[in-house]
Amino acid sequence: MRLGLAITLLVLAGCGVEPSSPEPREGRPVAAPFVEIVCTEEGETRLWTPVVEVQPDGVHLDIENRAGEPTSFFGLGLDVDEGRHEEVVTVPPGKMKVACYPYSQHESDRKPVKYDLELVDPEGHWISTDTECEPGSMGQSTISDFAYPLGDGLSKDPVELVKDGVKGLGPEDVVEVAGYPEAEVPTVRVVRAGRVIATFGLVQADDGGLAIETSDLCASEGLRA
After folding, report:
1. How far is residue 130's CA from residue 48's CA, in Å, rounded to a whole number?
2. How do residues 170-212 score in pLDDT, each as one tens digit?
3. Domain 35-120 has CATH 3.40.50
4. How far is C-alpha 209 from the geometric centre of its chain's CA atoms?
5. Domain boundaries, the chain
6. In angstroms, rounded to a whole number, what is the distance separating the alpha carbons of residues 112 and 90?
7. Neighbours of 2 (CB within 10 A)
8. SS3 sequence, 99-113?
9. What 8-state DSSP symbol labels residue 139?
């Protein structure tokens, strides 16, 4: 009887205990799963999450724009209207500066105060998109001149799109998704003999198909998009 009572008391005592928040390791802030950022009525920035862990599809954002007008977000490559927004961007891991920048300030001398944001990738989601050209070889970048909105894409498979659309690929070349592997519109890279010799940025058409929008190539490798 006493043993049963003791067990009952332990269970009841445990029910009222709430789990504690995770403690920072080695003095570093705990990484948040998304960037929480507010643009105030005065157009100032409030960054509540200085360290954020990237996800397989990119960097998740919780944005609240109280500025009363559309606002650019410096460092995140994003413009949003007034209100609250949940977005995903594909900026790579690393340290950066961010700030909200209301449209009315673009033509003025007032520049936004920027805040430090660190994007960490402990799970290794990010796949490098940096080209590794041979010494002395120049890089070459192109942007396709589409008429927007883009009606029809060419393929819904990003790897097959590059294999079909890029000339000069060799039988040993590896064509694979890069950047964030689960991004809605991924990047594709070409690896030759262990080096990244090209990356291709894609755009999604109205029909859900994809087309090559940008390319960064090592000029000496003989690839043409």
Report:
1. 30
2. 999 999 999 999 999 989 999 999 999 999 999 888 777 888 9
3. no
4. 21
5. 35-120, 139-218
6. 23
7. 6
8. EEEEHHHCCCCCCCC
9. E
